[in-house]
């Protein structure tokens, strides 16, 4: 895959990687705000999810981060958003990107001890969203955001990412879009057809 162009960070909020806080960075990059969530917020969510656990299963045992998907989903719900786990058996071309607030990509990453790569993996969370006219890769491990491009470029990017190994894609949508599945083309077509039938029925009733 071609190397994507880093872009100037002016006007784009981009948190860089610290410790194992990629989930926190992904959420703040998604909302384009350093105050959207704090580590304390995510730790409190962990406790609420498993209040009686001696070792909390939703974060690193040392409290350094490494939050799981349940924490991300609960955090997004606090902001009024729902999370859709995209079925990789389907092509990303079915997505109605204009109805999706943003994307969180889950990808395996190496453990390192200094310059030594250890023989096991952990998961890394990456935010992708539209800022201005273009979709950006806001990976906290990047020195600066990377330009993806327009909707067609986004589909190409996501299609390539999901073909590469053990990666998962989360769609972030508001409650209305989630309930009616308006993030998916077949559902959007059905909704439009239903609205057309309802409008036609209203016209007949008014005759």
UniProtKB/TrEMBL annotation:
GO molecular function per UniProt: cysteine-type deubiquitinase activity
Major localization listed first in the record, in broad terms: cytoplasm
Enzyme class, broadest EC rank: hydrolase
Pfam families: Josephin (PF02099)
GO cellular component: cytosol
Signal peptide feature range: none
GO biological process terms on file: protein deubiquitination; proteolysis
EC number: 3.4.19.12
Locations listed in the record: Cytoplasm, Cytosol
Gene3D superfamilies named in the record: 3.90.70.40
Top-level taxon: Eukaryota
InterPro entries noted in UniProt: JOSD1/2, Josephin
Keyword annotations from UniProtKB, A to Z: Cytoplasm, Hydrolase, Protease, Ubl conjugation pathway
Catalytic activity: Thiol-dependent hydrolysis of ester, thioester, amide, peptide and isopeptide bonds formed by the C-terminal Gly of ubiquitin (a 76-residue protein attached to proteins as an intracellular targeting signal)
Keyword Hydrolase recorded: yes
Active-site positions on this chain: 22, 124, 139
Domain Josephin positions: 9-187
General function of this protein: Cleaves 'Lys-63'-linked poly-ubiquitin chains, and with lesser efficiency 'Lys-48'-linked poly-ubiquitin chains (in vitro). May act as a deubiquitinating enzyme.
Protein name: Josephin-2
Native source organism of the sequence: Pomacea canaliculata
């Amino acid at each position: 895959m071609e190397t994507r162009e880093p872009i100037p960070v002016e006007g784009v909020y981009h948190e860089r990687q610290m410790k194992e806080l990629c989930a926190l960075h992904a959420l703040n990059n998604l909302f384009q705000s350093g105050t959207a969530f704090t580590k304390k917020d995510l730790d409190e969510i962990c406790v609420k999810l498993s209040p009686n656990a001696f070792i909390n299963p939703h974060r690193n045992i040392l409290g350094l981060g490494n939050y799981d998907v349940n924490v991300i989903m609960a955090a997004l719900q606090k902001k009024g958003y729902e999370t859709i786990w995209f079925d990789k058996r389907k092509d990303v071309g079915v997505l109605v990107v204009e109805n999706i607030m943003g994307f969180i990509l889950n990808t395996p990453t190496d453990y390192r001890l200094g310059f030594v790569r250890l023989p096991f993996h952990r998961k890394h969370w990456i935010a992708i969203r539209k800022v201005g006219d273009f979709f950006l890769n806001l990976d906290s491990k990047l020195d600066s955001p990377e330009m993806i491009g327009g909707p067609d470029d986004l589909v190409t990017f996501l299609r390539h990412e999901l073909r590469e190994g053990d990666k998962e894609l989360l769609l972030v949508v508001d409650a209305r879009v989630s309930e009616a599945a308006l993030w998916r083309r077949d559902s959007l077509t059905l909704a439009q057809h239903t609205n057309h039938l309802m409008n036609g029925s209203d016209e007949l009733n008014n005759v």
